[in-house]
Write a sequence for this structure.
């Protein structure tokens, strides 16, 4: 909208007694950045030992707020990104969202009281369109919320996981730059919401040649031969295992057995090479974000823009003997989250205890937009402004994309309980961790001398699963009760083997 047109519209609206839309141009912009499959522990501001270089994202962290407790809630689908992106777009909890293409993977989907049929009309793009914002989106195609995605006015979606500018992350960056150039050309001064999504570092992690070289990795394609070791590669994760100690309900999912370059291998050469590929893709994302931020600064828009950086979920890549995103350990259930913008104190951190589904409520709160009536998320603006450290005390997680009931977890304070119910494998397992004492969620298997020799990390005696330790029986019972309460409150359609029906 041009300056002259805005003046005319303002006069007209004032005459009609309507002023809310006339002030839309004074609202801050939103740049929401979402990556695909990225563990928080890849970043130096979460893990000082990481070899990943992301100077642009690191600067966002230094100029804004880092969240130490951000989570994606969970999934009822092996494609974990599907429910995650539905939750982001709608601000609704995991059992209150539709499946992709009506696949009925959410057992509650047929209940319109739990999953509204007209939900796309109340998703991120639609809400901000009605509020007078210009909306633009670029991201991957597939395993997403198509009906919500198309609500954005400008949509440039494509899956880009190659190692060139046209086939990789630079393509997504170009779509945003082209959009900003057009705004500049037409003197459009409306506030904007840009959903800046990437297809990486999700596999296949085909990095650019120069960044693969930097991290000592290759785009490995020979299943019968291991990649060559290279000292430039990232180190082994401290909680690596050669295999997960028990069937966790979905050990045969594609991510665990069929990712090109890894397959079922968990050896040092494979894991370090794959981490190097992931880091090459992540640094390329950082470069593209830098170009967009430079453009916003040149346009004079940067200081009036809230920038949110996050991922749809975390990733294992060797941790706990796992490869994919179908688990509830911290490296996968938790996500990176950095927010920079007006009123946010630089260089701050907060626990937060937020879900990705809280993003919609939060950006509405930050911009003065009315959140939709279907929203179930909680704004974490009070955390961003330093008024609170957390928005909730208890966090719930689910994964049941494989055999049901599958996995559940609950977290309160430093304590975290995980449960696994896999009837066909006769698996009924419980884990209890104090994350302050055992942040890597070490298991008894991590104390094995061969594992220690591989990782170079020797866990302390108390850094293990405490579920069956009688000294923590009361703590376990408290967490068991909390989990069942959260499952009931959130309309989880399943019960675990030791829960009352």
């Amino acid at each position: 909208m041009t300056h002259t047109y805005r003046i005319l519209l303002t006069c007209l609206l004032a005459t009609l007694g309507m002023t809310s839309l006339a002030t839309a141009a004074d609202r801050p912009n939103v740049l929401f950045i979402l990556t695909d499959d990225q563990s928080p522990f890849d970043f130096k501001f979460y893990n000082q030992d990481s070899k990943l270089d992301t100077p642009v994202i690191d600067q966002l962290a230094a100029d804004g707020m880092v969240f130490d407790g951000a989570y994606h809630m969970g999934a009822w689908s092996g494609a974990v990104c599907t429910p995650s992106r539905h939750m982001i777009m709608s601000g609704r909890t995991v059992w209150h969202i539709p499946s992709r293409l009506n696949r009925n993977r959410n057992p509650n989907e047929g209940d319109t009281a739990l999953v509204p049929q007209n939900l796309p009309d109340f998703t991120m793009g639609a809400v901000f369109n009605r509020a007078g914002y210009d909306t633009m989106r670029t991201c991957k195609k597939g395993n997403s919320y198509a009906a919500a995605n198309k609500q954005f006015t400008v949509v440039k979606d494509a899956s880009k996981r190659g190692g060139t500018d046209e086939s990789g992350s630079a393509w997504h960056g170009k779509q945003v730059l082209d959009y900003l150039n057009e705004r500049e050309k037409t003197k459009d001064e409306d506030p904007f919401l840009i959903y800046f999504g990437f297809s990486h570092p999700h596999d296949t992690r085909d990095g650019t040649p120069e960044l693969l070289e930097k991290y000592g990795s290759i785009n490995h394609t020979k299943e019968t031969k291991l990649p060559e070791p290279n000292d430039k590669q990232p180190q082994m994760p401290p909680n690596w295992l050669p295999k997960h100690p028990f069937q966790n309900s979905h050990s045969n999912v594609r991510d665990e057995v069929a990712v090109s370059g890894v397959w079922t291998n968990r050896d040092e050469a494979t894991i370090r090479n794959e981490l190097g590929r992931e880091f090459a893709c992540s640094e390329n994302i950082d470069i593209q974000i830098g170009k967009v931020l430079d453009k916003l600064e040149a346009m004079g828009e940067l200081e009036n823009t809230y920038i949110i950086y996050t991922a749809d979920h975390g990733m294992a890549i060797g941790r706990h003997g796992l490869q994919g995103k179908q688990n509830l350990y911290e490296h996968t259930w938790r996500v990176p989250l950095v927010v920079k913008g007006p009123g946010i104190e630089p260089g701050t951190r907060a626990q937060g205890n937020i879900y990705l589904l809280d993003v919609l409520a939060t950006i509405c709160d930050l911009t003065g937009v009315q959140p939709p009536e279907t929203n179930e998320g909680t704004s974490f603006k009070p955390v961003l402004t330093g008024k609170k450290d957390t928005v909730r005390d208890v966090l719930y997680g689910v994964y049941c994309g494989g055999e049901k009931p599958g996995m559940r977890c609950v977290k309160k304070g430093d304590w975290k309980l995980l449960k696994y119910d896999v009837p066909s494998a006769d698996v009924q397992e419980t884990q209890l961790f104090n994350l302050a004492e055992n942040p890597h969620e070490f298991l008894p298997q991590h104390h094995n001398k061969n594992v220690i020799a591989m990782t170079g990390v020797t866990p302390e005696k108390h850094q293990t699963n405490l579920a069956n330790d009688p000294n923590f029986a009361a703590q376990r019972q408290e967490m068991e009760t909390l989990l069942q309460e959260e499952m009931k409150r959130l309309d989880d359609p399943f019960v675990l083997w030791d829960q009352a029906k």
Notes: The domain at 28-393 is CATH 3.40.720.10 (Alkaline Phosphatase, subunit A). The longest strand covers residues 192-201.
